[in-house]
Recover the amino acids of this structure.
């Protein structure tokens, strides 16, 4: 399932992390050596993917309009408990539908009383190749 790079096969004495999942960085940076795009691997790749899914609203992607978390649209509503439950359902459904590398353990959406325009989303999940739970906390804040 995992693939060894050419450098790993030529230098067997160096222990490197085996790449199971990889994605390009969101800003498409180049590597310092050569004209290759930089990548994020394994857990960083999954965290980047989940973050991108949640920051996308439904209809934002041109040929896949059904992908999106719709969290930003809830930031302009009155911050009542029902909206937080709705946001939790949105997060759970978008990750279960569009991120097959993740098995969700829990999703928690909360807003502090002192700042009603801020929402914290905490996601605890396991990846398919790792049994240890990973935690991702995202901050959504209304700018205006």
């Amino acid at each position: 399932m995992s693939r060894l790079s050419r450098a790993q096969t030529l230098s067997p004495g160096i222990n490197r992390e085996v790449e199971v999942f990889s994605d390009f960085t969101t800003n498409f940076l180049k590597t310092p050596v050569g004209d290759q795009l930089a990548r994020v691997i394994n857990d960083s790749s999954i965290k980047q993917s989940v973050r991108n899914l949640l920051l996308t609203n439904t209809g934002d992607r041109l040929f896949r309009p059904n992908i999106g978390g719709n969290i930003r649209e809830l930031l302009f509503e009155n911050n009542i408990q029902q909206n937080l439950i709705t946001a939790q359902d949105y997060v759970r459904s978008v990750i279960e539908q569009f991120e097959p590398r993740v098995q969700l353990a829990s999703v928690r959406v909360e807003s502090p009383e002192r700042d009603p325009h801020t929402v914290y989303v905490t996601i605890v999940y396991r990846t398919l190749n790792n049994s240890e739970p990973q935690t991702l906390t995202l901050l959504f804040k209304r700018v205006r």
Summary: The helical segments are 6-10, 42-55, 71-74, 81-98. The radius of gyration is 18 Å. The CA atoms of residues 94 and 121 lie 13 Å apart.
